[in-house]
Write a structure and sequence with these properties.
- By secondary structure, the chain is of the alpha/beta class.
- The protein is built from 16 helices and five strands.
- The chain has a five-stranded parallel beta sheet with strand order 3-2-1-4-5, sandwiched between helices.
- Strand 4, helix 5 and strand 5 form a beta-alpha-beta unit.
- The model has no long low-confidence stretch (mean pLDDT 93).
Length: 338
């Protein structure tokens, strides 16, 4: 039997639980990645960010035949289903609001084609959704750390059929990409293996030194295994592990408190009287606030598409607590660049 597997935020073969499930349960697997026009436009994905994804897919395509399509996800999958005639569809369980909404539509499409749908839990270390609702990190962390599952899957390279579907090289001319100057997906594994986790709790607080792992984009696109990262760091730095837990805490919040998509999580913080002075907003967006570390942080974010953790805190706090600008304006700015 044949299954379609949709790569999303899991651009790796090693320890990819959803792909392993597909490879073990189906004789042929059709690996697909979709450049969704809606996602690209809503996140204002520019050439630098897009080039990171493309390079990660190029690395992946060296190991597995990967079909790539561009357009609306449902239209693209309809084409894949009509071409490949699968019996099943497999993806990693979506963690974001928009991802869950998109998957609900995919489920309906699968029903239309008589295809079984499978969503496999991956890209989190602990079943954060199963933990009873917590709005504060420390109580969440105490439950989270008890439930961490660090068991790893072997690398899966399933049998891929030859189909009349485009590959990455066929659609790359349609994508606007440029060379990256700051980060490359090919460096993810090397950085993960060489980083000094033992000094993280001290080094992470100084933006002037190379003291953070800089693995956030690698984690965000699933280029490295979270479980491998946990095994490498857990006996060296509890602080680093807590940072991994913070990521999953916000997935937990999104799952249990859906109002936080548009409103402040804490009810006491809702309905604040934001000033939203456009002159101050423009100064912030153009790194002309006059506060050197804030402006330096904004320049780094817009140019490198990465920002030191401590400077992220400074920039976000400055915008909301000093300039009294609505956090949703800052959120949009971060979503465009980070």
């Amino acid at each position: 039997m044949r299954a379609v597997f949709l790569f999303k935020r899991d651009l790796r073969l090693k320890d990819n639980r959803a792909l392993s499930f597909a490879a073990k349960n189906f004789s042929e697997v059709v690996p697909v990645f979709i450049f969704d026009d809606e996602i690209l436009s809503s996140l204002k994905v520019g050439p630098k960010r897009l080039s990171y994804i493309v390079e990660a897919l190029e690395i992946l395509s060296q190991k597995i035949k990967l079909y790539c399509l561009k357009g609306d996800t449902l239209s693209a999958l309809r084409r894949v289903f009509e071409t490949s005639l699968p019996k099943a569809f497999v993806e990693s369980l979506p963690l974001t609001w928009s991802g869950r909404e998109r998957s609900e539509k995919i489920v309906s499409l699968c029903k239309e084609f008589g295809i079984s749908y499978h969503a496999i839990k991956d890209n989190v270390l602990s079943p954060a959704f199963d933990i009873s609702p917590r709005q504060v990190f420390t109580p969440f962390y105490k439950e989270w750390i008890k439930r961490v599952d660090s068991s790893m899957e072997d690398e899966s390279i399933p049998k891929v059929p030859d189909l009349n579907l485009p590959l990455l090289q066929n659609i790359k001319p349609e994508l606007k990409v440029e060379n990256l100057h700051s980060f490359s997906p090919k460096d993810c594994n090397k950085r993960m293996l060489s980083f000094n986790y033992g000094s993280y709790s001290e080094s992470r607080s100084s933006p002037a030194i190379d003291g953070t792992s800089k693995l956030s984009p690698c984690i965000r696109f699933g280029i490295i295994s979270l479980r491998e990262l946990f095994l490498l760091s857990s006996d060296k730095s509890e602080q680093f592990v807590k940072e991994l837990a913070w990521r999953e805490f916000w997935y937990h919040v999104a799952w249990h408190f859906p109002h936080s998509r548009k409103l402040e999580l804490n009810q006491k913080r809702q309905n604040l009287n934001w000033q939203n002075d456009q002159n101050l907003i423009d100064a912030f967006l153009n790194a002309k606030t006059g506060y050197p570390i804030v402006d330096a942080g904004i320049r780094q974010l817009t140019q490198e598409k990465w920002l030191h953790n401590r400077v992220r805190m400074i920039v976000a706090s400055f915008l909301t607590k000093v300039l009294l600008v609505d956090w949703r304006i800052g959120e949009e700015f971060f979503m465009e660049h980070l």
